[in-house]
Design brief:
The protein has 226 residues and is α+β, with helices and mostly antiparallel strands. It is built from 5 helices and 11 strands; from the N terminus they run H-E-E-E-H-E-E-E-H-E-E-E-H-E-H-E.
Amino acid sequence: MADHVLDRPVWAALTSKQAHWAEGGPDAMRFPPNVSPFAASRDDSEECLRALVALVPEGGGILLARKGGGEIPPGLKIATEANIVQMHAEDLVPADPADEIVPLGDADAEEMLALATLTRPGPFLLDTYRLGRFVGIRVDGRLAAMAGERLHVEGYREISGVCTHPDFRGRGYAGLLSRIVATRILRDGETPFLHAYETNASAIRLYETLGFRWQRTITVQMLVRG
């Protein structure tokens, strides 16, 4: 039994604030494949694990995010695995939107995907931006940096997709955009949270300077048929 709603953040999202995105049934659910590879089960019981297998697309995989990992469904294998740090905003210094910050949406989708594909902030597909509100910074018309929202559960909203094009690093864009997104979440009465790879010391240090604190470690596994 999970001790905290964010021990199984994908399940929490798909059974609450983002239930309208859920594909599957009562034992296992996933986001649409064009939106996100994330899937989750109610627990690690035999029936739930079988339900997860049914969500794996042919030639593709599903991404699980669970505290401590968990059982692997029969018929599936781990393609990749990593530990990520889950951090919550505890003493964030709010940031007000600046003139250089622009909202991102449908017209920016292909540029957002190209930037995320280049910088690899985490799973990001063509329609991932539809999960939340994204903002960015443009320099001479180019999308230099962006950040937005992904998982949304009762009382918490995730900051995600934080990335900066290599040509524009060192200008503080990632920190600024993260604070902008976090401030909006706080003003909505919710707690911002985010994830960073456990091995990404520089990202963790950045988020700590912004007022985020380490809460738990989540294991992320890409599962494929095998």
